[in-house]
Specification:
two-stranded antiparallel sheet, mainly alpha
Length: about 230
């Protein structure tokens, strides 16, 4: 009897190991160093997002409602809900950034999901949705087929299972969508930033960019023009 039990356990372990190999998981991104200096969001990350991302991810109906024109938009994440839906018969709750929710938790209650959080906290590399899409673009840089974000049916993966399915079906749909991959330095900067927890600007810098500059005669009139 003991031998039969041992044999059954062996078979179960063997089959489970085979099953884990059959399941396809997105290719993990290259590991960055944890002991590197903190990547500054305003000085290093935002310029990359402004240059390579906000052309598509900045308006109210951005793909998956992901807005990268501000850190608050990056932190809010994405949503599967369409802003404009011609089949909708009744009004739906608005999702205007800075207006309809103020905190990350409030956006999560509105079914927004993180694009920067690690999907597998047990690993030493960041495998967030953003990182996997950027990495996939580097692995599959060819632009194949037609790209029409305004009319194509959008797929907005929110977890690892959906991400695996998306990358298998659309290996040439990494980010930036329909454009060349990030340069190596840009990719490494975002990789390090994500690995460090995708932190936003410090309190001091946030105060600096949101407070009008003072001059000897009061507020700087040039700042008024900008706002």
């Amino acid at each position: 009897m003991p031998y039969r039990i041992v044999f059954i356990l062996f078979c179960a372990l063997f089959l489970s190991s085979c099953d884990s190999k059959i399941k396809t998981k997105a290719k993990p991104v290259e590991n960055m160093q944890l002991n590197q200096p903190r990547v500054d969001y305003l000085d290093e990350v935002k310029p990359i997002l402004d240059k390579r991302c906000v052309s598509c991810h900045s308006c109210y109906n951005s793909p998956c409602q992901s807005k990268f024109s501000s850190f608050e938009g990056v932190d809010r994440g994405g949503s599967k809900d369409l802003v404009y839906d011609a089949t909708r018969l009744f009004a739906t709750d608005a999702t205007r950034l800075f207006i309809d929710a103020q905190t990350t938790q409030e956006w999560r209650k509105k079914d927004f999901y993180s694009l920067t959080d690690d999907l597998d906290p047990n690993t030493y590399q960041n495998d967030s949705i953003m990182m996997q899409l950027l990495s996939d673009k580097r692995d599959n840089p060819q632009i194949i087929g037609e790209y029409d974000p305004e009319h194509d049916t959008l797929i907005c993966p929110k977890d690892q299972k959906e991400m695996d399915k998306y990358l298998r079906k659309k290996p040439n749909h990494g980010m930036p969508y329909g454009f060349p991959a990030l340069k190596r330095k840009e990719f490494e900067t975002l990789s390090q930033w994500l690995l460090q927890g995708a932190k936003g600007p410090t309190v001091q810098k946030q105060k600096k960019i949101t407070s009008p500059k003072q001059t000897g005669k009061g507020r700087d009139p040039e700042m008024g023009k900008i706002f």
